[in-house]
Amino acid sequence: MNDPVVELAAVTRTYDAGPPALDAVTLTIAEGEAVAVLGPSGSGKSTLLNLVAGLDRPTAGTVTVAGIRVDELGEARSARFRRARIGLVFQFFHLLDELTVLENTALPARLAGVSRGAALSRAEALLDRLGVARHARAHPSRLSGGERQRVAVARALINRPALLLADEPTGALDTASGQDVKALLQELHRGEGQTIIMVTHDLDLAQSCATRIVRLVDGRVAEDAPVPGAAR
Amino acid sequence: MSGLGRVVRAGVARRRTAAVITCLSTLAATAAAVAATALLIASDQPFEHAFAAQNGAELTATFDGTRAGAARLADTAHANGVTSTAGPFPVATTTAVVQPDGVDATLPGLSVVGRADAGGPVDDVTLVSGHWVTGPGQIVLSTDIVAVPLGSTVRFPDAPGTPALTVVGYAQSITKSADAWVEPSRAFALGDAGTPPVYQMLYRFAQARTDGQMLADQAAVIGLLPKGTLVGTSSYLGAKQTAQHNIAPFVPFIVAFGILALATGILIITNVISGAVGAALFKIGVLKALGAAPAQVVRAYCLIALLPSVVGVVLGAVLGNVIANPELHNAEVAYGTGTLSVPVWTDIAIPAAVLALVAVCTVIPALRAGRMSATAALAVGRAPRPGRARFARRLLAGLPVPQSVGLGLGTPPTRPARYLSITAALIFGTMALTFAFGLGSSLSDVDRGLHYWESAQVTVASGQFSAGGKDGGEISADDDASIEAAIARQSGTAGYYGLARDEVSVLGSADALNASFYTAAGTSPYQIIAGRWYSGPDQVLVPTGFLDSTGTRIGDSVTLVDGNGDRVSVRIVGEVLDTLSDDGMDVVGDAATLPGETPDEFDVTLEPGVDVTSYLQSLNNAVSGYGVSAYADQPPGYDQTILAVDALAAALTLLVVVTAGLGVFNTVMLELRDRIRELGIYKALGMTPKQTMAMVLTSTLAVGVIAGAIGVPAGIALHDYVIPVMGHAAGTGIPRADVAVYHGLEEVLLALGGTAIAVLAALVPAGWAARLRTATALRTE
Fold it and tell me: Where residue B92 falls among pLDDT bands split at 50, 70, 90?
């Protein structure tokens, strides 16, 4: 097994007085794995993703990503950690409509202090690789859902992250666009060995892109099993 | 509770930030409007208002009590045209001694009136502090006389038995009918021994608007009395003219500040309220989707905005009164017309007007939302319309600066109305700062010009120096040259001039002139408004009042006539800033202009670092043989009126600046709330708290820079317009140097002031944005 990239140890997250969103979850994800986190609404999938991304902190337990205790990071270090190690893909893309596709893609690099020229150049290369270079000067609102998600993936990869986190990456897409994104994730994992954690309701996406499926129920890991026949 | 009522209650409770912002905005705007309106009202005919409030005496007459007794004087109430009277009150004109700073101060010619109470049908005296006299050992002083603590003692050294009375209050009569008030039984006993009794009567008449009517009224009164009973009179028309003369210079700047404060308040309300309702579009869309009728939606959202506004205006009215009262006190000092207060109707009308403005600002966007389809409201309400100012934003975001700074700079074009509005508010704030700075500098410079003689550190005059000042008297003409030579020889003398004061007249004019003739004055001790200092005995300079009343101009010639009938033709070569007394009927020239003009005194300035005591000792040794002595002049003091105006300007500036700052604060908070999801995206992509702070602060920085760039020149223009208007109202021109008080560095610092207001006001919202948890921001609808 490769080195672990993500290690969750007895992680619990509670909000207010309600039941825990995550309840003593322990999970290890190795470099090169593509893990799909499945589960019904309210099972803790997004909470798990937020904790791994450093967007939220556990109530108990530890979260370690690429050797860094994410749960101990302050806001500033957490932001720096995120832009260096994590690529985030959201269900609703979260592209900024005032910026062009190229500028959206380059944004995390610019925030990391990469010069404008270098960031744009890197973004152009990524857009080309993901097949949306022709839209570089367009605004996201003019793209199809699948194209927007491709741009979102390009933006997530701009800082060459160790880990790609995708929150319902096909959840807002039509079938054709969903297939498009599915193919892209497969390519990233199988072709480039990108470590991916994806949260999804889509069993088909999980089975076609992931090497392992973690099923959450009421904040607990109900199942953690490799996908039969999955290979890098 | 109806469904709509629940929506309203929940709307206010759940949108706490918006409710607090609305409340704060209406609070600030109401406070500014109440304070500014109170000042504007106080500046509108303050004498007339105070006179009406006090039932001021149109005629104050004093009568010889030996020719007509109190009963006969009281009968004058039935004279033709008299509508009401007060008195007769016994009067003593006497000398009093107080100790304002622990040192005896003599008050000669003090008019002490015996009055049982402050009120009455005429001259309803305003008690400013303490209480009215209740016993023979007490005295109430006029606020115009001297300031000593309540409980202090006033001695009457010339009265039989040298009585001492305790100060129990301060009061103000609009027509200054007395310097002090005591019990009626006590008044005569305070006069000099052997002085015949004198009574004061106060009258109001049916017709008293002109000098002619006043003379007729006066004739009707004295017609009922034996000849020679009238000792003296004082018409309210004179007091009114003096008050108007005192007040007129201050009105322009108070009006300027008042308008700035009102305009800033209105801008803030329109900006924040319409912004808050606009931000609620999404919720409006949801309500409509659930079946709410447009009218219900409009009503609900008007109420959601109005409820916190009601709280804001009530608190704002209270705060406005708190702010206005010290400002009105400063105006009282500047105007000298008695107690000013916030009119009751202001406390009702201003909050009502603010609420009406809130309602209008709410109704318009709410009606627009009400007419929208549910889906349109849902779509529009989620975020700023993406296409808006895209080019400008991209351009600014693409500047060669850190990404967060570029994003911040690109924010204002996406909300042009909102940011234009706060830019305007900041422009007003910067204008107020600039204007207040210039006003203070100009008034200080003018004050120095009006007290030009205070630049001398040493005066040489005849007689011996005493604590009360010089003894006065003329210096022997034979000794002038010797004294002048002694001053010139004295080590440490930097400059000097001799000053001869005389009274002359201009041929063809009945007005007497105060003449100041100088020896050895190579440069002007005065500030010159126009023209130049004289260069020969046939040249003079005059104040603006002289030019206005004689219809002359610089370059014209006039003939001066002295007391001996000697005449000399002189050419006016300059216009000087002189004391504003005697309507500017002064003339300044060389001592050789008229024969026999010899200095009454020499004013000396010293070289830097010279020890004044040693200098005086040495100079006195040299000049004592000529019957003169040298003494140190008091360092220039602070004029109370100028200080009051400065304090007033500072308070008004603070009011405008704080209102503008609150506008920025509220707008930035609204903007962040609107863009909270976008903020979450930035943070999720790795924007650090520092970068978030930078982005938010730079969004207002650009606005602040623009406001500074416009506000400073606008403030200077306002200042350059108002200062000469103030001078004109006071009867004088203003030297250009006193108007041109802004220099490069000051202008830059004032422009930075506008930026500082913007950035400081955005600090708290920026901090909130920096601390905001990413997950929370992403989850927020």
Answer: confident
Nearest to A76 among B678, B684, B688 (CB): B688
- B332/B39 Cα distance (integer angstroms): 10
| pLDDT range class, residue B463, cuts 50, 70, 90 | low
Rounded CA separation A114/B394 (Å): 18
Count of other CB atoms within 10 angstroms of residue B64: 16
> Which residues of A touch chain B, with CB atoms under 8 Å apart?
50, 53, 55-56, 75-76, 79-80, 82-84, 88, 90, 94, 96-100, 103, 107-108, 110-113, 116, 139, 141, 155, 159
The residues facing B505 across adjacent strands are B512, B561
The answer to whether B369 touches B301, Cβ cutoff 8 Å, is: yes
Helix (H, G, I), strand (E, B) or coil at A21: coil
The model's pLDDT over B207-252, given as tens digits with 9 standing for 90+, comes to: 888 888 888 988 998 888 888 888 888 888 877 777 766 667 777 7
The amino acid that residue B395 corresponds to is L
Q: What is the pLDDT of residue A231?
A: 54
| Residue showing tokens 């930078």 | B694
Query: CA of B411: which chain A residue's CA is closest?
Result: A98
A36-65: pLDDT as tens digits? 999 998 899 989 999 999 888 899 999 999
How far away is chain A from the Cα of B388, in angstroms, using its nearest Cα?
8
Across residues B540-545, what is the average pLDDT?
Answer: 90
Query: What is the distance of C-alpha B746 from the center of its chain?
Result: 22
Exposed (0-12), middle (13-18) or buried (19+): which is A57, by Cβ within 10 Å? middle
In angstroms, what separates the C-alpha of A94 from chain B's closest C-alpha?
7
Q: Hey, what are B563's tokens?
A: 């007391």
Which residues of chain B does A141 touch, with a Cβ-Cβ cutoff of 8 Å? Answer: 386
- What are the pLDDT digits (tens) for B31-67? 878 887 887 777 767 777 778 878 888 888 888 888 8
Q: Least CB-CB distance to B685: which of A97, A108, A141? A: A108
- Vertex A221 angle, CA A218 and A226, to 5°: 140
The radius of gyration of chain B's CA atoms, rounded to the nearest angstrom, is: 34
* Helix B689-730, helix B676-684: angle, nearest 10: 140
Determine the Cα angle at B87 with ends B82 and B93, to 5°.
125
Tell me the whole-structure pTM to 2 decimals.
Answer: 0.72
Decide if B133 contacts B168 (C-beta within 8 A). yes
**Euclidean distance between CA atoms B686 and B721, whole angstroms:** 52
**ipTM attached to this prediction:** 0.84
Sequence letter at residue B500:
A
pLDDT, tens digit, for every residue of A62-120? 999 999 999 998 888 888 898 889 998 888 888 887 788 998 999 899 888 888 889 99
* Interchain pair A55, B681: CB under 8 A: no
Peptide bond before residue B608 is cis, with ω within 30 degrees of 0: no
pLDDT-derived band at A34, boundaries 50, 70, 90: very high
Q: Which residues of A touch B390 (CB under 8 A)?
A: 97-98, 139
Please write the tens of the pLDDT for every residue from B580-621.
666 778 899 998 888 777 888 888 888 888 888 888 888 888
Strands (E) in B444-556, as ranges, are: 458-462, 493-506, 512-519, 527-531, 539-543
Q: In the predicted model, is pLDDT for residue B507 greater than 90?
A: no
- Which of A12, A39, A40, A38 has the alpha carbon at shortest distance from A26? A12
Give the SS3 label for residue B557.
strand
Q: Do A96 and B678 touch (CB under 8 A)?
A: yes
Position B715 pLDDT exceeds 90: yes
Angle at Cα B459 formed by Cα B454 and Cα B464, nearest 5°? 130
Distance CA B234, CA B211 (A): 11
- Beta-strand ranges (E) seen in B434-482 are 458-462
Considering all CA atoms of chain B, what is the largest pairwise distance in Å, rounded to the nearest integer? 106
How many Cβ pairs within 8 Å bridge chains A and B?
82
